Amino acid sequence: MASYSTNEFRGGLKVLLDGDPCIILENEFVKPGKGQAFNRVRLRNLMTNRVWERTFKSGESLEAADVIDQDMEYLYTDGEFWHFMLTDGSFEQYPADAKAVGDALKWLKEQDVYTVTLYNGSPLSVTPPNFVELEVVDTDPGMKGDTAQGGSKPATLSTGAVVNVPLFITIGEVLKVDTRSGEYVSRVKSS
Amino acid sequence: MNREPVWQPSASQAALKSRAQQLAFVRGFFAKREVLEVETPVLGRCGVTDVNLDGIPAQVSAGTRKGGWLQTSPEYHMKRLLAAGCGSIFQISRVFRNGEQGRRHNPEFSMLEWYRTGFDDVTLMAEVSDLVCGWLGCERPEIIQYRDALRRWAHIDPFAATDLELMRRCEEWLEPEQLADLGRDGCLDLLMSFAVEPNLGRGRPVFITGYPASQASLARVSKSNGYETAHRFELYVDGLELCNGYWELTDPREQRLRFEADNELRSRSGKPEMELDEAFLAALDQGLPECSGVALGLDRLLMLKLGVQDIREVLAFPFERA
């Protein structure tokens, strides 16, 4: 496997640190004019999601981690694994366990496309698109005449996610939701 | 990654204008003091032996000479002018350092370097203050000894501590195996960069002076309080290292020994040894007048003037856009 020297460090680079795959978040070059150069690096451990801060002597190197992001369609779950399929026409399938699916679980809709991060060929994490469109399966009855003004109520979506929505939303409507904040964005016009 | 090339400058129009004003200010400052502006090669035959400075080699083919180096500083050429009897001189030049890139670094940057014949380090520090405070409108710097700065902010005595104690102190930042080949000066640089520097010049600019003799580079060394210290100073403003100055070493034999020691350090750390600049050493043989010299980063000075945190905001085209 290739390795990266400190002068190749940049945000987004995936490296192995203490045996775990990590993604470099920030790399700060520090050097007194006449002295030894160092790199202060912030990394997120992709196994634990913890953020580490490490110092390296400039010129040190880290092994590259075999981590790649792939677009995959969510197929189904058998209760133990969530099955995804590459969208590149190969129809290759990958089972992701609960740990890999993580918080993406509440946004999983069959046939939608997700970013699956593979580490040494196995799903490490699943990232939903920034926006998903999901149907409301349960919420208090909508109030007539109430439009944009005031108030919100919880609504349960088809995936089980609960989001706060305006009072006029009714069961059966399809909503656009921001998966990063978990917030309602808008109604999706039904044709 | 294939990104669209960015053609626009990364500095604002206001920053570019301020850069021009800064150049005019510097030239006016030295004109008033009758210091001669000079120009020396950016492309030289030799690089530097300094183990922490990596030059950028050039593929030159001219006459019988092949190869060359983009200069990391105009120092050697300027000292040859001093030896030739030019008197006090200054230069605004582009210098090059391989691998240096970040919020405060660009591999190519603007250096203001000047030499004052007959000045010692203390007199030159006063002139640096005149220039920097005259441009930034800041308070005049206080002077803190290197030893006191390390004791105060890194909680260790840089002269009295053993190598082992220094390494232990550095374990806050580095793993023991990373520390194994860092060496005493590397440890001190780490403490300076991470424990001391962020505190320097907050509110009032600070000169650090009295560096350990091992970090003298081209400064003369004398004994103070039983320890050998270098007549070297650095100015920090708002945690930013701005300049590095010396009461210059004029002894050619001592200079040659330091170059050879550098090369030994280089080969031990797996770096290529550098050819000694014999023309420079010959000039020292001829006799460098008693003088002090200082190199000041003009891009950083402009960062301070404009209150920006990233050098890219003051460069028209940082390396990634060049």
UniProtKB/TrEMBL annotation, chain A:
Involved in peptide bond synthesis. Alleviates ribosome stalling that occurs when 3 or more consecutive Pro residues or the sequence PPG is present in a protein, possibly by augmenting the peptidyl transferase activity of the ribosome. Modification of Lys-34 is required for alleviation. It comes from the Bacteria. GO terms for biological process: peptide biosynthetic process. Belongs to the elongation factor P family. May be beta-lysylated on the epsilon-amino group of Lys-34 by the combined action of EpmA and EpmB, and then hydroxylated on the C5 position of the same residue by EpmC (if this protein is present). Lysylation is critical for the stimulatory effect of EF-P on peptide-bond formation. The lysylation moiety may extend toward the peptidyltransferase center and stabilize the terminal 3-CCA end of the tRNA. Hydroxylation of the C5 position on Lys-34 may allow additional potential stabilizing hydrogen-bond interactions with the P-tRNA. The modification N6-(3,6-diaminohexanoyl)-5-hydroxylysine is found at residue 34. This is Elongation factor P. It holds the Pfam family Elong-fact-P_C. Keywords: Cytoplasm, Elongation factor, Hydroxylation, Protein biosynthesis. GO terms for molecular function: translation elongation factor activity. GO terms for cellular component: cytosol. Pathway: Protein biosynthesis; polypeptide chain elongation. Residues 132-187 form the Elongation factor P C-terminal domain. Residues 69-124 form the Translation elongation factor P/YeiP central domain. PROSITE patterns: EFP. It is found in: Cytoplasm.
From TrEMBL, chain B:
InterPro entries: Aa-tRNA-synt_II, aa-tRNA-synth_II, aa-tRNA-synth_II/BPL/LPL, EpmA, Lys-tRNA-synth_II_C. Residues 24-318 form the Aminoacyl-transfer RNA synthetases class-II family profile domain. PROSITE patterns: AA_TRNA_LIGASE_II. GO terms for molecular function: ATP binding; lysine-tRNA ligase activity; tRNA binding. The keyword Phosphoprotein does not apply. One of its GO terms (biological process) is lysyl-tRNA aminoacylation. It comes from the Bacteria. GO terms for cellular component: cytosol. The keyword Cytoplasm does not apply. Keywords: Aminoacyl-tRNA synthetase, ATP-binding, Ligase, Nucleotide-binding. It catalyses: D-beta-lysine + L-lysyl-[protein] + ATP = N(6)-((3R)-3,6-diaminohexanoyl)-L-lysyl-[protein] + AMP + diphosphate + H(+). Homodimer. This is Lysyl-tRNA synthetase-related protein GenX. The lineage of its organism: Bacteria, Pseudomonadati, Pseudomonadota, Gammaproteobacteria, Pseudomonadales.
